[in-house]
Prior knowledge:
This protein is α+β, with helices and mostly antiparallel strands. The protein is 24% helix and 44% strand. It has 3 helices and 9 strands. Strand 6 (92-101) and strand 7 (104-105) form a beta hairpin.
Amino acid sequence: MKENDVTLARETDVADSKISIERVFDAPRELVFANWTKAEDVAAWFAPDGFTVLGCDVDAKPGGQWQVTFRSDAGDVHEEFGEFIDVRAPDRLEFTLTQRSNGKSGPKTTVTVNFAEKGGKTHMAFQQSGYTSKDMRDGNAEGWAECFRKLEVHLA
């Protein structure tokens, strides 16, 4: 994991349940936003290193559902799924995210992504909250950093 990819909030015990990541992509805001809301684009980047997306469904509207199924290099199948809370193209997304592996679901977390255009590039501010363990939070922070590197390549 690159040092600048992830900023973990650590001010209080409550803040320990949150991931914050900021990235700048050399692409227009509308394109970066679309890569979060179109299944064919999500499938291209929404899996950390060592995982392959098997299926992806995205209904990007408030109340709409989303799901990504992927397999690890070891052969384990995992799912991430949730519901869109707020969709304001091309400025903001908010959705729930639950991970399921080996028949067990993790906590329901909330993801908020804000997009701002700056000089033809897009500043993305990502936050995920609701973790119940530091280990899960830290593992997911690394996974998101890997995904965002894949997103950068996909946008190029």
